[in-house]
Inverse folding.
């Protein structure tokens, strides 16, 4: 048994290899934009080297290779995808351009108070590449105007002649009756068989034409690149002897077989962060925690995900590059606070601020010594002595960091450089803590029910600060913190999910309708996953009469009878009163069913890591470090040397080749048997 | 307050947290709430105030709903401190426009925040309700004779006591509404949002100390006040004027149906007075604004048009800007005048007037001129309420919110944003067609951007939209109430010689007429003004056009390549390109166009000289002759003393204390020529579009919409 997980990031491609003995090997290669598969093979190659194997030996004995890819995301962010033509219901060609008139949707914070910079999301679609086709279906699915095939043919011919490489179809009420969308796909295949087609009713069977159309356009925009990349990578892997399952991380959680991923390119878009949450879930399963908060400190952002009752928490309308997508995705709220966030003095407020601007990768923070002059969060931890190098190689320039903080923050604030650096860490960590709080408390979750997990290259430096005051039950820094997303790809279950929006029906009458809709979905879903041991999960989306937000609740197998309905009603009312207050659920307002969902899951068996020996590691050296304005020589430990169960008191640092854990004064750290670390925020001993 | 502010780091943490608490309250509200008005369109907002009601944090959705929440809290403090009392766990509800809401459909729920027995802050929200009772569904009645023909407001009542909703008071409120279930969900959402915000602010007090939190809020208001005063000092002193028109009822021969919102802005040093006292006496109903609406819209407009990139703290604006008005006028109505339609009528005129005056003020500064912005859509006849009985026998009634698809105003450097709604409701959205069809028994035939609806300019305004729908799923007639403004004339002003955004259109009737209008029928058809009894029956169609945004700068100066792109994108017609921009296009192949450079140059030269009676226009000078007064006018010190001159050609127009507008070459045209579809409404013949040009170089200096009998407005005069 051997599993390989691969995550392609902006700078590095990470590979994590798990062997059946539980041995974990990590490999890293520079990402190779344009030829992403080269970086993937190089990263796997470095693992093979360190295991003393050839690439062929390694791959031919691999059962599952799981991949989180940013090919689609990069194509979208850099606007380098396919030229898309859109077919809509005639009269509604402006749906993407009107964009529900939402000029503020996910605008960067710095533009919110600047009316001349209010702009709508920039969908990768030219206005002149949109064509309306006479047809109309109403909300019941009844055909009011039949599809005008002549016009449809002419529109397809015109768009293809104009140079369109991929076609998206978004018709009104297609989720309720997709017949016209299906017919248009047949016409495209007839007229231009080489052109990719995405139907809105396929990729996002959700009511709400704007978000559904955006999803279809983004899918059509990225699909040709994603499909050809996955095909090329798979071919190269097969050429190197790989015969196992090639699976791709989806932003909705879990992994799916590559052929399914090629048909739903949009699901690969944010697969990296979803991998981190997936790894958090697996870590929780191993350590016996069902509720976890996943926190990832990156270079430009801080991401938070939740695992509740052992499942990654989903958002129904995720947003990428300001574009709303009507596909469920692991919910990962994010703020622009990361290692590269710029610290500055705000003369108007007289305060120290951090972000939302970030230093670009080049020249980067001042401490990189590459010419960056503005101080960043990373510069602050370098000045404080918490971090001295980046990765295994780049030594950081503390003097440059001090100068930048001195000039841009300390002097205008009238404080010393150390005080300013501590202030930067404090303000940044308060922003991170705020996001965690907003993701938990204000959604009705009590942090004391949760274990907080910190990862990403920088997470271990800050978690001791941002986890304070949250009241979480425990803080874990996983052994693979810097490569956690790649690890997430192999720790995820194979899963395929489908959902359908229904016309609102009172729940009390909806049993047969729910049964019928689920019976229709189930074969579609099961067929996409090979193999036995499938678990099928069913859910219904409920809301109060005419409420727009819905709540998804799981339902048991078997027919939806009166008992099931009664139980659903009770659970729905209870959830409502949890948020609004006791006795608040309006008793005489009917509850409606508006959606059904179905998910098939096939678990991937992950070998348990081999346990650490029990031993007591000694510090390898001491280093001058500042805490609360005081400098002292504090001990530094090697992470891999710590024995199972070993407990060390802060202040101290624990370093590995890829990252450094900061244990702040008053805190302590305990090594767990699998190499994970438990951070104890208030040491009582 | 005399407390010393907390250290810079704690201050930043608290500031960030307050904004977060307020935003999360809005998210909570939308999660719990019911209607598509609240959830899809975000016709709501949340705010946090100090204990005395100064608004410190304000959401981005509909700014003017909470910009002056202090009027509600101060009313509660003034009247209820002893009876029934203000205690922890209480919440108060009101929809009284004479107390503090914009109009009756806007329901405000506020909660005091106590910590350890001290009143620390208030938090609250506003949500627009589908129906709050009264004779007409949706609360908007065109023919109201007073507020007694509109939904009768509920003054503040203590709807929540000790964290529990008072069912008796809730019933008293819900029984008025035709949509009680939706209102109940929205109310629950507002209560839940307040609960969450109260708890979060209390936590903040526990963590940092009540004194620190209070001092941080005070500091925030002080800092925002300092910023705003500094910005005012950067701008030249002067007086700016603007007149907006409203109509109420059928056109009368003596124009008694026409109401003026007249603003004079006076700026000296770091003080700004916005004087509305020259506005018309109040109307019987519908189109008036009570004082709270005037203040809310004015404060929100000052934030949008003057405070770009500054802190947006409404409480600070109230300290710096003095609002002057006269009781009994259309912008400051006295009880019992009807005010239910204020937000779509007088409030829009208030925003446009503040917008026009402040933007011209910004044009006086080299550094800040880029912030000047022409007017966005002014919620017009494109919007309204549909109501009736669905096939299942259940009453329905709601706004479609399609009026939010009007165009944005252009700026010195950029075109306005197409179909982007109004600036004072930045976070509001129109609903999906599929969502509206789920709520209302209608079938949309079209909702699309409309060519030639934007105000032409060197930078063009954003386009508006055309919306057509018909009843579907009901046999009963569907009642249609239109906001009915902007049909007789355009309402969104252009700047610096840019044209106004094109007017609204409204029609409810035969499908043949609609088809004809959309096909651009050969002659301008006379359409009736909306009346209170409008119904859609059988195959009748409801047609609405939302206004475009105002243009910026002389349209003859627009890059012909940009005009060509607009034509390719369907935002300007080939006819419009020639008529509005002097750009002549010729066909290339079956589907594309190219600019005929030579003909375009000749055509533009001809149009320019026609502006000044066929004379040869003077050549522009290399440098502006003096100090900026506006983008088009300079103050010049010459041998004959200080005078006002054309900034382009240096031609003197008037002495510094004279009226340069009297010297300008005026070209006056009927408003229906600028209608986006070929139609005209009764009363429109009384209005004109006046284009004012430099008499020497023929550059366009300003465009004004006016009653034919009213004089040219002197929109700016310097203070020496």
């Amino acid at each position: 048994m051997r599993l390989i997980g691969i995550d392609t990031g902006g700078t590095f491609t990470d590979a994590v290899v798990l062997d059946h003995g539980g041995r974990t090997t990590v490999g890293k290669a520079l990402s190779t934009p344009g030829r992403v598969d080269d970086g993937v093979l190089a990263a796997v190659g470095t693992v093979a080297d360190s295991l003393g194997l050839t690439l062929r030996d390694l791959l031919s004995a691999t059962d599952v290779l799981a991949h989180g890819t940013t090919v689609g995301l990069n194509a979208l962010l850099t606007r380098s995808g396919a030229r898309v033509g859109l077919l809509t219901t005639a009269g509604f060609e402006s749906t993407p351009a009107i964009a529900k008139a939402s000029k503020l949707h996910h605008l960067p914070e710095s533009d919110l108070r600047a009316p001349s910079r209010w702009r709508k999301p920039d969908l990768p679609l030219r206005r002149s590449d949109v064509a309306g086709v006479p047809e109309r279906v109403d909300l019941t699915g009844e055909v009011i105007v039949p599809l005008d095939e002549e016009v449809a043919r002419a529109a397809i011919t015109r768009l293809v002649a104009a140079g369109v490489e991929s076609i998206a179809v978004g018709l009104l009420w297609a989720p309720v009756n997709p017949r016209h969308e299906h017919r248009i796909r047949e016409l495209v295949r007839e007229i231009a068989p080489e052109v990719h087609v995405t139907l809105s009713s396929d990729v996002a069977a959700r009511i709400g034409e704007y978000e559904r159309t955006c999803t279809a356009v983004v899918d059509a925009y990225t699909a040709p690149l994603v499909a050809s990349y996955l095909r090329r990578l798979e071919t190269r892997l097969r050429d190197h002897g790989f015969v196992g399952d090639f699976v791709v991380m989806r932003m909705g959680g879990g992994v799916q077989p590559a052929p399914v991923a090629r048909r739903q390119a949009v699901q690969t878009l944010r697969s990296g962060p979803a991998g981190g949450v997936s790894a958090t879930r697996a870590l929780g399963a191993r350590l016996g925690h069902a509720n976890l908060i996943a926190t990832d400190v990156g270079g430009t952002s801080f991401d938070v995900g939740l695992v509740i009752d052992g499942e990654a928490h989903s958002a129904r309308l995720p947003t990428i590059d300001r574009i709303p997508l009507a596909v469920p995705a692991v919910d990962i709220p994010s703020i622009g606070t990361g290692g590269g966030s710029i610290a500055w003095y705000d003369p108007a407020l007289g305060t120290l601020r951090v972000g939302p601007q970030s230093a670009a990768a080049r020249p980067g923070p001042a401490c990189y010594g590459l010419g960056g002059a503005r101080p960043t969060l990373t510069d602050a931890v370098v000045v404080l002595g918490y971090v001295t190098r980046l990765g295994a190689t780049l030594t950081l320039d503390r003097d440059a960091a001090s100068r930048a903080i001195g000039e841009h923050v300390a002097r205008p604030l009238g404080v010393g450089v150390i005080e300013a650096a501590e202030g930067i860490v404090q303000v940044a960590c308060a922003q991170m803590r705020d996001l965690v709080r907003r993701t938990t408390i204000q959604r009705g979750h009590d942090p004391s029910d949760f274990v907080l997990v910190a990862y990403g290259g920088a997470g271990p430096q800050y978690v001791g600060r941002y986890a304070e005051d949250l009241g979480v039950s425990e803080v874990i820094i996983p052994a693979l913190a810097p490569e956690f997303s790649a690890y997430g790809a192999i720790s995820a279950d194979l899963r395929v999910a489908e959902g359908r929006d229904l016309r609102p029906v009172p729940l009390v009458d909806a049993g047969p309708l729910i049964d019928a809709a689920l019976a229709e979905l189930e074969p579609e879903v099961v067929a996409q996953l090979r193999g036995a041991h499938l678990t099928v999960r069913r859910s219904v989306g409920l809301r109060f009469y005419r409420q727009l937000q819905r709540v998804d609740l799981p339902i048991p197998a078997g027919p939806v009878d009166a008992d099931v309905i009664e139980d659903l009603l009770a659970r729905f009312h209870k959830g409502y009163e949890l948020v609004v207050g006791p006795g608040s659920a309006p008793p005489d307002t009917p509850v409606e069913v508006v959606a059904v969902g179905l998910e098939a899951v096939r678990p991937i068996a992950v070998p348990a890591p081999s346990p650490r020996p029990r031993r007591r590691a000694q510090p390898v050296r001491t280093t001058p470090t500042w805490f609360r304005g005081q400098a002292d020589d504090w001990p530094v430990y090697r992470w891999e040397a710590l024995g199972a169960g070993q407990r060390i008191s802060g202040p101290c640092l624990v370093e590995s080749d890829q990252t450094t854990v900061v244990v702040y004064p008053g805190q302590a750290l305990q090594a767990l048997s699998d190499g994970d670390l438990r951070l104890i925020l208030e040491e009582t001993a | 307050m005399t407390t010393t502010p907390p250290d810079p780091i704690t201050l930043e943490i608290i500031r960030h947290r307050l904004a977060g608490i307020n935003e999360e309250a809005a998210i909570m509200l939308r999660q719990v709430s019911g209607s598509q008005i609240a959830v899809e369109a975000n016709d709501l907002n949340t705010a946090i105030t100090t204990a005395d009601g100064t608004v410190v944090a304000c959401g981005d959705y509909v700014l003017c709903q909470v910009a002056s929440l202090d009027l509600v809290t101060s009313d509660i403090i003034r009247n209820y401190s002893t009876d029934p009392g203000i205690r922890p766990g209480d919440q108060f509800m009101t929809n009284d426009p004479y107390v503090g809401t914009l109009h009756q459909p806007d329901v405000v729920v506020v909660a005091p925040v106590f910590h350890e027995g001290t009143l620390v802050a208030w938090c609250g929200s506003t949500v627009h309700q589908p129906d709050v009772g009264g004779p007409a569904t949706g609360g908007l009645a065109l023919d109201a004779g007073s507020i007694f023909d509109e939904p009768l407001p509920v003054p503040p009542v203590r709807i929540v006591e000790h964290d529990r909703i008072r069912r008796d008071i809730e019933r008293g409120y819900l029984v008025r509404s035709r949509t009680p279930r939706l209102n109940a969900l929205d109310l629950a959402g507002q209560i839940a949002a307040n609960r969450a915000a109260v708890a979060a602010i209390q936590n903040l007090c526990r963590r940092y100390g009540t004194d620190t939190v209070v001092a941080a809020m005070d500091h925030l208001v002080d800092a925002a006040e300092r910023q705003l005063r500094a910005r005012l000092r950067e701008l030249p002193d002067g007086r700016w004027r603007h007149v907006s028109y409203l109509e109420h009822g059928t056109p009368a021969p003596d124009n008694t149906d026409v109401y003026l919102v007249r603003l004079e802005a006076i700026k000296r040093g770091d003080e700004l007075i916005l004087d509305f006292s020259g506005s018309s006496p109040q109307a019987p109903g519908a189109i008036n604004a009570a004082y709270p609406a005037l203040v809310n819209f004015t404060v929100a407009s000052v934030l949008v048009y003057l405070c770009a990139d500054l802190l947006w703290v409404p409480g600070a604006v109230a300290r710096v800007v003095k609002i002057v008005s006269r009781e009994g006028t259309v912008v400051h109505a006295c009880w019992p005048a009807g005010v239910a339609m204020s937000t779509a009528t007088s409030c829009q005129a208030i925003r446009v007037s503040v917008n026009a005056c402040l933007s011209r003020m910004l044009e006086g500064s080299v550094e800040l001129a880029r912030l000047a912005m022409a007017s966005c859509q002014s919620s017009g006849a494109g919007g309204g309420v549909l109501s009736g009985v669905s096939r299942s026998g259940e009453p329905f009634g709601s706004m479609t919110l399609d009026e939010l698809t009007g165009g944005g105003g252009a700026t010195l450097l950029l075109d306005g944003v197409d179909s982007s709604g109004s600036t004072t409701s930045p976070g509001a959205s129109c609903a999906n067609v599929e969502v509206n069809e789920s709520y209302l028994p209608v079938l949309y035939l079209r909702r699309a951007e409309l060519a030639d609806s934007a105000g032409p300019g060197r930078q063009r305004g954003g386009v508006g939209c055309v919306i057509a729908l018909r009843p579907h799923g009901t046999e009963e007639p569907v009642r249609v109430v239109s906001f009915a403004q902007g049909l007789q004339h355009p309402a969104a002003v252009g700047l610096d010689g840019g044209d106004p955004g094109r007017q609204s259109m409204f029609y409810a009737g035969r499908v043949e007429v609609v088809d004809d209008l959309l096909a651009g029928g050969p002659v301008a058809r006379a359409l009736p003004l909306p009346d209170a009894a409008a119904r859609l029956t059988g195959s009748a169609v409801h047609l609405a056009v939302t206004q475009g945004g105002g243009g910026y700068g002389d349209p003859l100066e627009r890059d012909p390549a940009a005009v060509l792109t607009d034509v390719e994108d369907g935002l300007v017609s080939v006819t419009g390109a020639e008529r509005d921009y002097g750009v002549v296009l010729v066909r290339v192949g079956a589907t594309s166009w190219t600019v005929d450079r030579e003909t375009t140059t000749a055509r533009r030269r001809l149009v320019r000289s026609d502006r000044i009676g066929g004379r040869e226009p003077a050549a522009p000078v290399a440098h502006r002759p003096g100090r900026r007064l506006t983008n088009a006018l300079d103050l010049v010190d010459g041998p004959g003393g200080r005078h006002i001159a054309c900034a382009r050609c240096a031609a003197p127009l008037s002495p510094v204390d004279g009226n340069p507008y009297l010297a300008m070459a005026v070209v006056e045209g009927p408003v229906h020529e600028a209608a986006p579809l070929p139609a005209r409404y009764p009363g429109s013949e009384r209005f004109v579009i006046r284009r004012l040009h430099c008499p020497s170089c023929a550059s366009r200096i300003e465009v004004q919409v006016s009653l034919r009998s009213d004089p040219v407005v002197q929109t700016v005069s310097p203070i020496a």
